Structure formats: C-alpha cells, structure tokens
Request: fold
Amino acid sequence: MRWQNLHLRGVGAALGEIMAVEDLESGRTLRGATSQRAVSIARDCTGMDLAVRASRHALASMAMTTVGPLPVPDLHFHAAIWRGSRGIDFWSRAAYVRSRLGLPAGRGIATELNAMSNSLVGGIDISARVLAGSPDLDTVLLTGGETFGPPAFDHLTADQGIAYGDGGSALILGRHSGLARILATSSYTDPTLEQLHRGNHRFAPAGTTELGIERIHERKRQYTDAVGTASVRRRNCVGVRAVMDQALRDADLTLGEISWFLLPHYGRHLLDTHCLDPLAITADRTLCHAGDQWGHIGPNDQIVGLTHLFTRCVVTPGDYVALLGIGIGMTWTATILRVDNTEPEMRPYAPALRWPWRRNDVSRGAALTRETNAVTPDPMPVPDQAENL
Reply:
C-alpha cells in the first residue's frame, strides 16, 4: 500500500553492555557457527524499562523537528516476544511504558502487538492502516523491549543460527513531517510454517504455567527433520520477495535505489539464506556488522538499525531505506521510507557499538571504537515541551 501522508516523527533505541561472545560462558563455540562478535546484555533491567528509555530518545528526536508542544500519542502498541521479557502475567506492559513516560490519560488505546519478531515493522503497516481510516487520530507510538538470559533462555545457545541480545526501541508515526516519510508498506502471511517453532511439543494444560528452559532449537529441528530445510527456505523466500516487491512497486522504486536494507540480526548463514539471497542484495547494503554486535533483539532489530542510521548521520535527505520484518508464524512486512531530515543533535543517542560496523573497517581490522561502548544516556525531551506531555 502506498501512503500519502504518513511520517516517521521520532525514533530511539536502548541497549545494554556490548559483551564479546568470547567473554560469555556459552560463547566459546558459538562464533564459528554464527559469525556473531558480541551481543547486548542488559543486566538488572527489564524489557519494559528499555522500551521506556528508547521512547524518551524517540520523543527527544521528535522534539528536534517539532514546533510547539509535542503531541500525546493517540495509540500505543507495545511488543515483547519472550515470556521472560514480559515482567509478570495478567498485567499491561503498554500501560507501564506510557505511565513511566509521564503520558497523561486521554483518548485512544495502549495495547500489545504479537507478530513475534515482526511486531514493530508489522506494526508500522498496521498503524498506517489505522491512521488512514481514522481522521480523528494523529500520532502512534510503537515500542518494544526484550531481555533474555540463562538458564531459561541463553543468549547464545537457545536457538540455532541466531544469537539473541537485550534491548528496546521506539518509533513515533504521525501525519506531520519529521525525520522521514513512510512511502509504502506490504505484509504477507504463511501459516503453513506455524509448526516450525512448535515442533512436536504439546500445549501446556489449562491452568498451568510454562516454566523451564526454552527449547526453540529442539522444536525447530523436529519440524525440519520432517519437512526439510529446503521447504522452509522456499516458503520464506516467497514471503520475503512478495512483501519487498509489492512495497517497491507501491513506492515506485527499484531495488537499486534503496540505500540501506534493515534486516533481522540473524547469524550470517541465516542472514544469507533467509534475507540476502531472496532479495539478491549484498551485505554491504545492510548493517550486518553492527547486528553481529547487538544480536537478534526480537522485534527491535530494524528500529535499532534505523536509530543507528539517523544518530550516526549515515543517511542524508532523499535517501531511501527499506525495513524487512520476519516473524514466527510466519509473517513478513516490508516498509519503505524516504529520509527528509537528519539532526546532528541525535548523535548522543546512538546505539552502543564495540567494533567498527562498516565492512571495509572490519576487513582492515580497525581499532576498537570504544567511544560508544556504553549504555546510551537517558535524556528527556526538551524541558519546555516535556511539560506538555
């Protein structure tokens, strides 16, 4: 779908400490399998609190292109893919994030999305469709936050070919111009892949609580042993191509006109087979050398990457950026945006890195870039505007 009046008004991310894989207890044998160099580890912090921190960064970035009071979001969608990232059951994570941001009571709804790792890119598509049919609404806040950890979910060994990281992200969409214009979105669903992450496991009986170690690797192996990995790759390829081709057509662009592709932060083999090969693009048009320091942060990967592009002034007005979300189930969403403004004042909010993220710097073995190897500061929006939130 092509959108005529949808804009990215703010974006932000929050990570933990960037820990080298070799420094983690389970990391000695992982790097050879995934090419992962590091993952984000947020100790003593919840996924919701990371989402709050990212939202403050997003509000601060919106303030840089907004004249007058900042709008209060009419809608708020929050996402977390793992039970350990959700705090407690029978409780509203979205309301917690809004409360910690100091947002007042008012019209609209705060709720949760669960398209798994496609929740936020897919949430852009959903938000666009809601805004298009709701002239009384103006602004949507999308947030996500994940914290994994042993013994239930080891960052490095819980899944096959993917190392997981902790972090949060936020983006603000609306009808008024800001950082970028959302040109088009497209989504695709293939429920025949539902069993990929269920395997042969039975559902927990009603009235019980799921506890213990997350057995993602085991369940995926049970399914691929039955149908073969080629079947999974084929159906994923259809989904990836379907959403990207449609979004590019609706945006009246070609693949070659896209400056950056923001993809899930998979291990290199999965990145190649599930993203780069289906799209027929090269890794140097992606943030793979940043993602291999952050890990897969559930639905937050592409938004963390988008924050990276803006805060490090990698993009310039007129550049086109494509986001590809892939979620368990399976679902795929592509979003195409055009950069309108870059704000140097966003630099302090850059997601932490430990090593160079550009391919040429990595191949030359450049020195550590420790200037960003720290938790990003936690600023609030401009004081005179924050009072209006």
Remarks:
- Residues 363-389 have pLDDT under 50 and may be disordered.
- The longest strand covers residues 180-189.
- Residues 244 and 382 are 37 Å apart (CA to CA).
